[in-house]
Amino acid sequence: MNILIFDATPHWSGGANRIFLYSKELRKRGHTLTVCCLPGSGLSSRLPKENIPAITINPKSDLNLLIIPKLIQLIIKNNIDVIDICSPKFYWVASLAGRITKKTVMLTRNVPYRKKGIKKLVNTILYAKLVDRIIAVSDKIKRELIEDFNIPAKKITVIYDGIDLLRFPVPSTGNAPVIDEPYRVAVISRLDENKGLECFINAIPKIIQQISPILFTIAGTGSIEKHLKELTKKLNLSDKVIFTGFREDIPAILSEVDITIMPSPEEGMSMSALESMASAKPVVATSGSGLADIIVSNKSGIIVKPDNSTDLAEGVVRLLQSDYKQAGREARKIVEEKFELQKVVTQYELLVKTITT
Q1: Could you check whether the bond before residue 39 is cis, i.e. omega within 30 degrees of 0?
Q2: pTM for this structure?
Q3: pLDDT tens digits for 199-252?
Q4: Torsions phi, psi of 44, nearest 5?
Q5: Furthest C-alpha separation in the chain
Q6: Which fold has domain 2-162+340-355?
Q7: Taking a C-beta distance cutoff of 8 angstroms, is the pair 270, 262 a contact?
Q8: Distance between the two ends of the chain, CA-based, in angstroms?
Q9: Domain ranges across the chain
Protein backbone atom coordinates (compact mmCIF):
# COMPACT_ATOMS: atom_id res chain seq x y z
CA MET A 1 0.00 0.00 0.00
CA ASN A 2 1.33 3.45 -0.95
CA ILE A 3 0.37 5.96 1.73
CA LEU A 4 0.86 9.73 1.52
CA ILE A 5 0.71 11.65 4.81
CA PHE A 6 0.37 15.43 5.03
CA ASP A 7 1.55 17.33 8.11
CA ALA A 8 2.15 21.07 8.63
CA THR A 9 3.65 21.03 12.13
CA PRO A 10 6.60 23.47 12.12
CA HIS A 11 8.08 22.09 15.35
CA TRP A 12 8.45 18.69 16.97
CA SER A 13 5.20 17.75 18.66
CA GLY A 14 3.08 14.82 19.74
CA GLY A 15 1.40 14.81 16.33
CA ALA A 16 4.74 14.78 14.50
CA ASN A 17 5.97 12.00 16.76
CA ARG A 18 2.83 10.00 16.00
CA ILE A 19 3.48 10.25 12.25
CA PHE A 20 7.14 9.35 12.75
CA LEU A 21 6.37 6.20 14.76
CA TYR A 22 3.50 5.09 12.50
CA SER A 23 5.59 5.63 9.36
CA LYS A 24 8.50 3.56 10.65
CA GLU A 25 6.25 0.70 11.73
CA LEU A 26 4.20 0.70 8.51
CA ARG A 27 7.41 0.67 6.47
CA LYS A 28 8.57 -2.40 8.41
CA ARG A 29 5.33 -4.08 7.39
CA GLY A 30 6.00 -3.56 3.71
CA HIS A 31 4.03 -0.40 3.00
CA THR A 32 5.49 2.56 1.12
CA LEU A 33 5.31 5.85 3.01
CA THR A 34 5.72 9.37 1.70
CA VAL A 35 5.31 12.31 4.07
CA CYS A 36 4.64 15.84 2.84
CA CYS A 37 5.69 18.32 5.55
CA LEU A 38 6.98 21.85 6.05
CA PRO A 39 10.55 22.84 5.15
CA GLY A 40 12.74 22.82 8.25
CA SER A 41 10.27 20.80 10.31
CA GLY A 42 11.26 18.02 12.68
CA LEU A 43 9.79 15.41 10.34
CA SER A 44 11.72 16.74 7.35
CA SER A 45 15.02 16.08 9.15
CA ARG A 46 14.15 12.84 10.96
CA LEU A 47 12.30 10.82 8.30
CA PRO A 48 15.12 10.62 5.68
CA LYS A 49 17.32 8.99 8.33
CA GLU A 50 14.73 6.18 8.37
CA ASN A 51 14.72 5.98 4.54
CA ILE A 52 11.22 7.48 4.43
CA PRO A 53 10.82 10.21 1.78
CA ALA A 54 9.96 13.63 3.18
CA ILE A 55 8.64 16.05 0.55
CA THR A 56 8.72 19.65 1.80
CA ILE A 57 5.93 21.99 0.74
CA ASN A 58 4.65 25.07 2.55
CA PRO A 59 1.03 25.74 1.52
CA LYS A 60 1.22 29.21 3.17
CA SER A 61 -2.51 29.07 3.91
CA ASP A 62 -5.18 26.38 4.08
CA LEU A 63 -6.93 27.80 1.00
CA ASN A 64 -3.92 28.24 -1.29
CA LEU A 65 -5.48 26.52 -4.30
CA LEU A 66 -2.41 27.32 -6.42
CA ILE A 67 -0.47 24.41 -4.89
CA ILE A 68 -3.09 21.81 -5.84
CA PRO A 69 -1.42 20.99 -9.20
CA LYS A 70 1.82 20.32 -7.31
CA LEU A 71 0.01 18.00 -4.92
CA ILE A 72 -1.69 16.19 -7.80
CA GLN A 73 1.72 15.65 -9.38
CA LEU A 74 3.01 14.30 -6.07
CA ILE A 75 0.12 11.85 -5.79
CA ILE A 76 0.48 10.58 -9.36
CA LYS A 77 4.28 10.37 -9.31
CA ASN A 78 4.28 8.23 -6.15
CA ASN A 79 1.35 6.06 -7.28
CA ILE A 80 -0.48 6.84 -4.04
CA ASP A 81 -3.36 4.61 -2.88
CA VAL A 82 -4.53 6.51 0.20
CA ILE A 83 -3.99 10.02 1.57
CA ASP A 84 -3.92 10.80 5.30
CA ILE A 85 -4.15 14.53 6.11
CA CYS A 86 -3.02 15.35 9.64
CA SER A 87 -2.91 19.18 9.70
CA PRO A 88 -5.59 21.83 9.01
CA LYS A 89 -3.26 23.76 6.71
CA PHE A 90 -3.46 20.83 4.26
CA TYR A 91 -7.10 19.82 4.85
CA TRP A 92 -8.65 21.56 1.85
CA VAL A 93 -5.85 21.54 -0.71
CA ALA A 94 -4.82 17.92 -0.12
CA SER A 95 -8.40 16.61 0.01
CA LEU A 96 -9.26 18.43 -3.23
CA ALA A 97 -6.12 16.98 -4.85
CA GLY A 98 -7.21 13.55 -3.60
CA ARG A 99 -10.70 13.94 -5.04
CA ILE A 100 -9.34 15.09 -8.42
CA THR A 101 -7.04 12.05 -8.60
CA LYS A 102 -9.83 9.77 -7.28
CA LYS A 103 -7.82 8.54 -4.30
CA THR A 104 -9.09 7.51 -0.89
CA VAL A 105 -8.84 10.45 1.51
CA MET A 106 -8.54 10.15 5.30
CA LEU A 107 -8.32 13.02 7.74
CA THR A 108 -6.67 12.59 11.14
CA ARG A 109 -7.83 14.84 13.97
CA ASN A 110 -5.29 14.85 16.81
CA VAL A 111 -6.27 18.11 18.50
CA PRO A 112 -9.69 19.62 19.22
CA TYR A 113 -10.69 22.23 16.64
CA ARG A 114 -14.20 23.26 17.64
CA LYS A 115 -15.62 25.76 15.14
CA LYS A 116 -18.47 28.28 15.12
CA GLY A 117 -20.31 30.30 12.50
CA ILE A 118 -19.02 30.27 8.93
CA LYS A 119 -15.97 28.17 9.85
CA LYS A 120 -18.27 25.49 11.22
CA LEU A 121 -20.33 25.51 8.01
CA VAL A 122 -17.23 25.32 5.83
CA ASN A 123 -15.79 22.41 7.81
CA THR A 124 -19.12 20.59 7.62
CA ILE A 125 -18.73 20.60 3.84
CA LEU A 126 -15.16 19.36 4.12
CA TYR A 127 -16.08 16.39 6.33
CA ALA A 128 -19.19 15.48 4.33
CA LYS A 129 -17.95 15.85 0.75
CA LEU A 130 -14.15 15.59 0.56
CA VAL A 131 -13.19 12.98 3.16
CA ASP A 132 -13.85 9.23 3.06
CA ARG A 133 -12.93 8.49 6.68
CA ILE A 134 -11.91 10.48 9.77
CA ILE A 135 -9.46 9.19 12.36
CA ALA A 136 -9.81 10.65 15.86
CA VAL A 137 -6.96 10.07 18.29
CA SER A 138 -9.31 10.19 21.28
CA ASP A 139 -12.91 9.38 22.13
CA LYS A 140 -13.33 13.04 23.14
CA ILE A 141 -12.53 14.23 19.63
CA LYS A 142 -14.96 11.74 18.10
CA ARG A 143 -17.78 12.91 20.40
CA GLU A 144 -17.11 16.54 19.51
CA LEU A 145 -17.02 15.85 15.76
CA ILE A 146 -20.39 14.10 15.93
CA GLU A 147 -21.86 16.88 18.08
CA ASP A 148 -20.48 19.80 16.07
CA PHE A 149 -20.81 18.52 12.51
CA ASN A 150 -23.44 15.77 12.70
CA ILE A 151 -20.99 13.29 11.18
CA PRO A 152 -22.21 9.66 11.17
CA ALA A 153 -20.40 7.75 13.92
CA LYS A 154 -19.42 5.00 11.47
CA LYS A 155 -17.39 7.53 9.45
CA ILE A 156 -15.11 8.22 12.44
CA THR A 157 -12.62 5.65 13.73
CA VAL A 158 -10.78 6.16 17.01
CA ILE A 159 -7.15 5.09 16.75
CA TYR A 160 -4.95 6.15 19.64
CA ASP A 161 -1.40 7.41 19.48
CA GLY A 162 1.14 4.62 19.60
CA ILE A 163 3.88 4.28 22.21
CA ASP A 164 7.06 2.29 21.65
CA LEU A 165 7.17 0.61 25.05
CA LEU A 166 10.78 -0.52 24.59
CA ARG A 167 11.86 3.13 25.01
CA PHE A 168 10.16 3.40 28.39
CA PRO A 169 11.29 0.67 30.80
CA VAL A 170 9.28 0.18 33.97
CA PRO A 171 11.28 1.11 37.10
CA SER A 172 12.08 -1.67 39.53
CA THR A 173 9.87 -2.00 42.58
CA GLY A 174 10.67 -2.42 46.24
CA ASN A 175 13.34 0.26 46.60
CA ALA A 176 13.22 2.03 49.95
CA PRO A 177 12.54 5.78 49.71
CA VAL A 178 15.48 8.10 50.28
CA ILE A 179 15.02 10.10 53.45
CA ASP A 180 14.51 13.85 52.81
CA GLU A 181 14.79 13.38 49.05
CA PRO A 182 12.53 16.00 47.43
CA TYR A 183 9.56 14.99 45.34
CA ARG A 184 10.16 15.64 41.65
CA VAL A 185 7.37 16.75 39.36
CA ALA A 186 7.66 17.45 35.62
CA VAL A 187 5.72 19.13 32.86
CA ILE A 188 6.83 18.12 29.36
CA SER A 189 5.17 20.37 26.80
CA ARG A 190 5.50 23.02 24.15
CA LEU A 191 5.58 26.33 25.99
CA ASP A 192 2.67 27.92 24.15
CA GLU A 193 -0.42 29.87 25.15
CA ASN A 194 -2.90 27.00 24.96
CA LYS A 195 -1.01 24.57 27.19
CA GLY A 196 -2.17 25.75 30.64
CA LEU A 197 1.37 26.51 31.79
CA GLU A 198 0.56 29.77 33.59
CA CYS A 199 -2.07 27.87 35.56
CA PHE A 200 0.57 25.29 36.47
CA ILE A 201 3.09 27.87 37.69
CA ASN A 202 0.39 29.65 39.68
CA ALA A 203 -0.42 26.32 41.33
CA ILE A 204 3.14 25.76 42.55
CA PRO A 205 2.97 28.04 45.64
CA LYS A 206 -0.21 26.23 46.71
CA ILE A 207 1.55 22.87 46.31
CA ILE A 208 4.62 23.99 48.27
CA GLN A 209 2.42 25.07 51.16
CA GLN A 210 1.38 21.45 51.64
CA ILE A 211 4.35 19.42 50.36
CA SER A 212 8.01 20.19 50.88
CA PRO A 213 10.68 19.53 49.78
CA ILE A 214 9.65 19.42 46.12
CA LEU A 215 11.21 20.40 42.77
CA PHE A 216 9.57 21.07 39.41
CA THR A 217 10.97 20.55 35.91
CA ILE A 218 9.57 22.20 32.80
CA ALA A 219 10.92 20.52 29.67
CA GLY A 220 10.20 22.22 26.36
CA THR A 221 10.41 25.48 24.52
CA GLY A 222 7.94 27.78 22.82
CA SER A 223 6.48 31.22 22.33
CA ILE A 224 5.84 32.04 26.01
CA GLU A 225 9.02 30.62 27.51
CA LYS A 226 10.33 34.07 28.47
CA HIS A 227 7.00 35.03 30.03
CA LEU A 228 6.90 31.81 32.07
CA LYS A 229 10.41 32.40 33.39
CA GLU A 230 9.46 35.95 34.39
CA LEU A 231 6.34 34.66 36.15
CA THR A 232 8.48 32.12 38.01
CA LYS A 233 10.79 34.88 39.24
CA LYS A 234 7.85 37.09 40.20
CA LEU A 235 6.47 34.30 42.41
CA ASN A 236 9.93 33.67 43.94
CA LEU A 237 10.05 30.14 42.57
CA SER A 238 13.43 30.22 40.81
CA ASP A 239 14.90 27.75 43.32
CA LYS A 240 11.99 25.38 42.80
CA VAL A 241 11.54 25.37 39.01
CA ILE A 242 14.07 24.20 36.41
CA PHE A 243 13.57 25.07 32.73
CA THR A 244 15.48 22.54 30.63
CA GLY A 245 14.63 23.80 27.13
CA PHE A 246 13.84 21.31 24.36
CA ARG A 247 14.91 17.79 25.24
CA GLU A 248 14.96 14.62 23.18
CA ASP A 249 15.94 12.32 26.06
CA ILE A 250 12.40 12.14 27.46
CA PRO A 251 12.83 8.61 28.93
CA ALA A 252 15.77 9.91 30.97
CA ILE A 253 13.72 12.83 32.31
CA LEU A 254 10.85 10.54 33.22
CA SER A 255 13.14 8.12 35.01
CA GLU A 256 14.03 10.90 37.46
CA VAL A 257 10.54 12.17 38.37
CA ASP A 258 7.74 10.90 40.58
CA ILE A 259 4.73 12.24 38.64
CA THR A 260 4.01 14.52 35.70
CA ILE A 261 1.39 17.18 35.04
CA MET A 262 -0.51 17.85 31.81
CA PRO A 263 -2.24 21.20 32.57
CA SER A 264 -3.57 21.90 29.05
CA PRO A 265 -7.26 22.93 29.27
CA GLU A 266 -7.97 21.38 25.83
CA GLU A 267 -6.02 18.45 24.43
CA GLY A 268 -6.89 15.58 22.14
CA MET A 269 -4.51 13.02 23.59
CA SER A 270 -1.18 14.17 25.02
CA MET A 271 1.76 12.13 23.74
CA SER A 272 4.00 13.32 26.59
CA ALA A 273 1.39 12.21 29.13
CA LEU A 274 1.20 8.77 27.50
CA GLU A 275 4.99 8.50 27.60
CA SER A 276 4.84 9.34 31.30
CA MET A 277 2.27 6.62 31.87
CA ALA A 278 4.40 4.19 29.84
CA SER A 279 7.22 4.94 32.29
CA ALA A 280 4.88 4.10 35.18
CA LYS A 281 4.74 7.74 36.23
CA PRO A 282 1.14 8.82 36.88
CA VAL A 283 -0.26 12.04 35.42
CA VAL A 284 -2.37 14.88 36.77
CA ALA A 285 -4.43 15.95 33.73
CA THR A 286 -7.45 18.14 33.11
CA SER A 287 -10.97 17.07 32.26
CA GLY A 288 -10.62 19.01 29.01
CA SER A 289 -8.22 16.42 27.60
CA GLY A 290 -8.81 13.03 26.03
CA LEU A 291 -6.95 11.57 28.99
CA ALA A 292 -10.15 11.96 31.02
CA ASP A 293 -11.52 8.96 29.10
CA ILE A 294 -8.63 6.65 29.95
CA ILE A 295 -7.31 7.69 33.37
CA VAL A 296 -9.33 6.44 36.32
CA SER A 297 -9.03 9.34 38.73
CA ASN A 298 -7.45 8.44 42.08
CA LYS A 299 -6.42 5.04 40.68
CA SER A 300 -4.19 5.51 37.61
CA GLY A 301 -3.76 9.28 37.85
CA ILE A 302 -5.77 12.36 38.77
CA ILE A 303 -8.24 14.37 36.68
CA VAL A 304 -8.78 18.02 37.67
CA LYS A 305 -10.73 21.03 36.40
CA PRO A 306 -9.10 22.96 33.54
CA ASP A 307 -7.73 26.48 34.11
CA ASN A 308 -8.04 26.14 37.88
CA SER A 309 -4.74 26.45 39.75
CA THR A 310 -6.32 25.57 43.10
CA ASP A 311 -7.81 22.35 41.81
CA LEU A 312 -4.58 21.52 39.99
CA ALA A 313 -2.57 22.03 43.17
CA GLU A 314 -4.98 19.87 45.16
CA GLY A 315 -4.72 17.13 42.54
CA VAL A 316 -0.91 17.13 42.66
CA VAL A 317 -0.91 17.01 46.45
CA ARG A 318 -3.50 14.25 46.52
CA LEU A 319 -1.51 12.12 44.09
CA LEU A 320 1.82 12.60 45.87
CA GLN A 321 0.26 11.82 49.25
CA SER A 322 -1.23 8.59 47.87
CA ASP A 323 0.51 5.44 46.68
CA TYR A 324 1.56 7.18 43.46
CA LYS A 325 3.90 4.35 42.49
CA GLN A 326 0.95 1.95 42.40
CA ALA A 327 -0.96 4.54 40.36
CA GLY A 328 1.99 4.58 37.97
CA ARG A 329 1.83 0.80 37.58
CA GLU A 330 -1.88 1.08 36.79
CA ALA A 331 -1.09 3.78 34.25
CA ARG A 332 1.47 1.52 32.57
CA LYS A 333 -1.16 -1.22 32.26
CA ILE A 334 -3.45 1.20 30.42
CA VAL A 335 -0.73 2.04 27.90
CA GLU A 336 0.12 -1.62 27.37
CA GLU A 337 -3.53 -2.42 26.71
CA LYS A 338 -4.59 0.54 24.57
CA PHE A 339 -1.55 2.39 23.19
CA GLU A 340 1.17 -0.17 22.42
CA LEU A 341 2.57 0.82 19.02
CA GLN A 342 2.14 -2.49 17.20
CA LYS A 343 -1.49 -2.75 18.31
CA VAL A 344 -2.54 0.71 17.14
CA VAL A 345 -0.65 0.46 13.86
CA THR A 346 -2.45 -2.81 13.18
CA GLN A 347 -5.76 -0.95 13.69
CA TYR A 348 -4.57 1.75 11.26
CA GLU A 349 -3.43 -0.85 8.73
CA LEU A 350 -6.78 -2.67 8.86
CA LEU A 351 -8.67 0.61 8.41
CA VAL A 352 -6.63 1.52 5.34
CA LYS A 353 -7.23 -1.89 3.79
CA THR A 354 -10.96 -1.69 4.53
CA ILE A 355 -11.57 1.70 2.95
CA THR A 356 -9.43 1.05 -0.14
CA THR A 357 -11.02 -2.27 -1.16
Answers
A1: no
A2: 0.90
A3: 999 999 999 999 989 999 999 999 999 999 999 999 999 999 999 999 989 999
A4: -65, -25
A5: 67
A6: Rossmann fold (3.40.50)
A7: yes
A8: 11
A9: 2-162+340-355, 165-338
